[in-house]
Design the sequence.
C-alpha cells in the first residue's frame, strides 16, 4: 500500500463515472454458465440498437442529475459483447491508483484498453500515479472481476466479496494488500443453490445505507455479515432473492460536485422495492435516478451499477 494512501479523505461515492458506449452488445455464450441473470431468448436482431438507446438514456439522466459522466466509445472490432460493463476490468482510486482485473471469459479480456484509460485521464483531467495489474492471475485460472466481484466500503476500508467462479479469495487478498483494505468473503447463492456470480448484484454500500440480499447468505454466516455491514450507523435494507433477480441490489450511490448524493439503479430494480425498504432507502439520498435498461439486464445479465466504473482519481 502506498505510504500516503490513508492521507486521502475517504469518500464512499464518486462524483464521476466512466461509461463505455456499446458497439457490439449481445448475448455472451462464454459467460452464460456462471451468470444466471442472462437470458439467451432475449437476444434479437436489434439487441445492440436497443442497448445503445438504454445506455444513452442512463448517461443523459446521470448528467442531468449533476454526476460527471465520461462516456467513451467501444470499438466495433474485435467484438466485445459486454463492453458496456467496464467496472469489471478496471477501478479508479482516490490515491491515484488504477487497478486492472483478471476476467474469466476470454472475450471480456479484450475490453481492457489502455487507450480508454489515457482518454479518460486527458479528457477528464484526472491524475494517475500507480497501476496495479492483477491480470497475470488469468494464467492460473484465478479471477476477480473488479467492482462486480468486490463491493468496497471506502470509509471503513472493507472489501466485501461473495466467492464464485469469477471471484477468487487469493486475488482479493492481493488486491486488499495493495490498497490497504480488509477483505470480507462469504458465500451467496440463488434459490437453486448456484453461487451468485458477482457480489454487486446482491450487495450495495452507500454513505448511509446498505442493500443486501441477506437470504442468499447461509444462515450461519448471515448475522455476522449484517452486523459488519451495519457498522457506522448505515441503514441496512434487506432484499429477497426475487428482488435480487430484479437487480434491486445492483445500485450505486454517486455524488454531484456540490456534494448531493444520487442513487443510480434501474427502473426494474426500483419497481421491485416497496413499503418500508423503499422509504428507508430513498431517505438516505438526495435524488434517485432510475432508468429502464431491460435489454442490458436480460441479455447481458447486468444492470445500472455494472455499467458504471466510479472515478475517484484526484484531479489535476
Sequence:
Amino acid at each position: 500500500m502506498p505510504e500516503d494512501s490513508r492521507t486521502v479523505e475517504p469518500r464512499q461515492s464518486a462524483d464521476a463515472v466512466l461509461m463505455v458506449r456499446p458497439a457490439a452488445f449481445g448475448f455472451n455464450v462464454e459467460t452464460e454458465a456462471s451468470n444466471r441473470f442472462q437470458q439467451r431468448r432475449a437476444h434479437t436482431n436489434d439487441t445492440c440498437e436497443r442497448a445503445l438507446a438504454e445506455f444513452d438514456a442512463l448517461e443523459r439522466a446521470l448528467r442531468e442529475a449533476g454526476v460527471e459522466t465520461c462516456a467513451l466509445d467501444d470499438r466495433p472490432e474485435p467484438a466485445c459483447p459486454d463492453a458496456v460493463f467496464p467496472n469489471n476490468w478496471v477501478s479508479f482510486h482516490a490515491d491515484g491508483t488504477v487497478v486492472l482485473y483478471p476476467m474469466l471469459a476470454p472475450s471480456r479480456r479484450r475490453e481492457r484498453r489502455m487507450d480508454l484509460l489515457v482518454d479518460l485521464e486527458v479528457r477528464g483531467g484526472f491524475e494517475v500515479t500507480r497501476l496495479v495489474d492483477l491480470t497475470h492471475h488469468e494464467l492460473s485460472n484465478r479471477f476477480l472481476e473488479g467492482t462486480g466481484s468486490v463491493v468496497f466500503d471506502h470509509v471503513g476500508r472493507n472489501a466485501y466479496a461473495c466467492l464464485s467462479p469469477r471471484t477468487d479469495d487469493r486475488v482479493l487478498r492481493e488486491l486488499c494488500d495493495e490498497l490497504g483494505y480488509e477483505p470480507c468473503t462469504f458465500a451467496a447463492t440463488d434459490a437453486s443453490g448456484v453461487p451468485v456470480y458477482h457480489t454487486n448484484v446482491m450487495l450495495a454500500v452507500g454513505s448511509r445505507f446498505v442493500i443486501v440480499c441477506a437470504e442468499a447468505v447461509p444462515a450461519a454466516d448471515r448475522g455476522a455479515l449484517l452486523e459488519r455491514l451495519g457498522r457506522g450507523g448505515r441503514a441496512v435494507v434487506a432484499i429477497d432473492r426475487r428482488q435480487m433477480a430484479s437487480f434491486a441490489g445492483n445500485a450505486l450511490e454517486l455524488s454531484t460536485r456540490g456534494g448531493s448524493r444520487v442513487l443510480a439503479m434501474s427502473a426494474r430494480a426500483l419497481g421491485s422495492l416497496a413499503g418500508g425498504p423503499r422509504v428507508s432507502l430513498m431517505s438516505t439520498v438526495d435524488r434517485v435516478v432510475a432508468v429502464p435498461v431491460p435489454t442490458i439486464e436480460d441479455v447481458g445479465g447486468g444492470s445500472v451499477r455494472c455499467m458504471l466504473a466510479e472515478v475517484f482519481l484526484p484531479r489535476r
Remarks:
- The radius of gyration is 18 Å.
